Fold this protein.
Amino acid sequence: FVAVPAPSGVSVQGLLHKNNIPDAMRSDINVGQEVSVRVIGINAAAKGLSLSCLEEDVDDDAALSEFEGVDSSQWFTARVHISTDHGFLVHVQSPSGAAARGLLHKSEMQEGPGSGIEVGQELQVRVIDINH
């Protein structure tokens, strides 16, 4: 867990999941060490944040065009970035390796939110619709 100073001066606890820390950095982090993070999710019920040390690697304009016309039965690798009441916001890996943002809606999941899926986890998803 990481203490993040809020603009009001109060510290807010945030979870920095190991999947959101670059591999090269994981063994070098120590308790009490200051690290740079970005907020990738807010859990109002738990009064906490989901954090990441990873670089934002999404270029929606370039990647979305690669998903145009793909068969809805084709599976892609996606990484969960934010958990919401509606499902999960994911970064989907295109065939060329670019990533695009997508919503994995709870109505399209075999398992609903709260079923053990975590921020940072990789999933297999299908692209059923593209919204520019």
In short: The first strand starts at residue 2 and ends at 5. The chain has a mean pLDDT of 79. The chain has two helices and eight strands. The longest helix spans residues 60-67.
